[in-house]
Design a protein that fits this description.
Elements: E1 3-11, E2 20-25, H1 28-37, E3 45-53
Antiparallel strand pairs: 1-2, 1-3
Protein name: DUF1330 domain-containing protein
């Protein structure tokens, strides 16, 4: 099963309602590198990187 990493920019409280989708990456390091290069870490914003499984069905 392949793992993917979904990158979101959010407020400093990391609330789900403020998430902005930025992309899907093949590794955590690549997602984090992209976030740093594009100044997603600021004093008013944070980053959330979620690990998800490809072709995986699950009730949440």
């Amino acid at each position: 099963m392949k793992l993917l990493f979904v990158l979101f920019e959010t407020d400093v409280y990391k609330s789900k309602s403020s998430r902005i989708f930025l992309g899907v990456f093949s590794s955590f390091e690549l997602a984090n590198q992209y976030a740093k290069e594009n100044n997603c870490y600021t004093d008013k914003t944070e980053v959330v990187i979620l690990e998800v499984k490809l072709n995986h069905f699950q009730e949440m």
